[in-house]
Amino acid sequence: MRQALVEAYRKACEVELQAFKPGNVSVYSDGHDMTVEDFRISLDVSSGPICDPSYSLGKKIYYAVRATREAVGCNTNLGIILLCAPLIHAVQNRQTGQVLRDALQDVLKATTKDDADWVFRAITLASPGGLGDSEQADVSEKASVTLLEAMEIAATKDRIAYQFTSCYKDIFEFTILLYNSILAKFGNFYWAALAVYAGMLAQYPDSHIERKYGRQYSGWVSSQMREIQKALINTDNPESLLPLLYEVDQAFKEKGINPGTTADITVATVLVVFLEQLVNREFC
């Protein structure tokens, strides 16, 4: 099972890199002082710790982030790790016959202060300006709340934290539907991943962008992504979207816009698809 989880995680990360996600790093376009190779190294070195069944959830996250930091020296995948680790932990600890989302709910409810402590250390190490601090929780200090409680504090301003508090509502009730719809249409993982990315940005502001710019670009980003989403739904040839994707990618990167949180949710969506396939084999 461990090797199957490693392969699912690596494949989900690679699918996201192969998808042309305007503003973000992909095989079509580097950006923000990061390259595709940085992300491929990151997915490789983080796959061992994040799938280690002997680690608690918090340790999975910390050691995966530390391995990444040591390998590439920058924050390529903190959000990916935060979202993917509970999913992997859920598969490793689920009850016989339990569906993935129920197992995930059990994992999230069972988080501890120790988990939070390890995650705070990971966030500090990655230095993303992530959960930040409030009167209730400060990632630079020892955790006084559980990991789920920390995410509840951050959930109104961070879409990754919101996934923890909603048992990944965006993914299980929205983005998987987008992914499967385009996958059924084109039979291609990468265009399906773009559908997730564009659909999320069309509907919800990106936390990473808003931490940097506030609401300055939120409406514009949403309108650009609605155009891409509409074009993807209506075309019979997704390759015909490439000129539009290059145009939007250039416009975003000229302004320093990187929808990084949405890219992280895209990885987690693809991983959920792969993990549900693993879990469903039990019922066949």
Alpha-beta classification: mainly alpha
Helix content: 55-70%
Number of domains: 1
CATH class: Mainly Alpha
Order of helices and strands: HHHHHHHHHHHHHH
Word description of this protein:
The protein has 284 residues and is mainly α. The protein has a single domain (2-283), classed as Triphosphoribosyl-dephospho-CoA protein. The chain contains 14 helices and no strands. It has helices at residues 2-18, 36-50, 57-72, 78-93, 100-109, 113-126, 147-154, 159-165, 169-186, 189-203, 207-213, 218-234, 242-254, 260-280. Helix 9 (169-186) packs across helix 14. The radius of gyration is 18 Å and the shape is globular.
Write the layout of secondary structure elements.
Blueprint: H1 2-18, H2 36-50, H3 57-72, H4 78-93, H5 100-109, H6 113-126, H7 147-154, H8 159-165, H9 169-186, H10 189-203, H11 207-213, H12 218-234, H13 242-254, H14 260-280
TL;DR of this structure?
The chain has 284 residues and is an all-alpha fold. The protein has 14 helices and no strands. Helix 2 (36-50) runs antiparallel to helix 3 and helix 10 (189-203) crosses helix 14.
List keywords for this structure.
mainly alpha; 14 helices; 0% strand; Triphosphoribosyl-dephospho-CoA protein; 284 residues
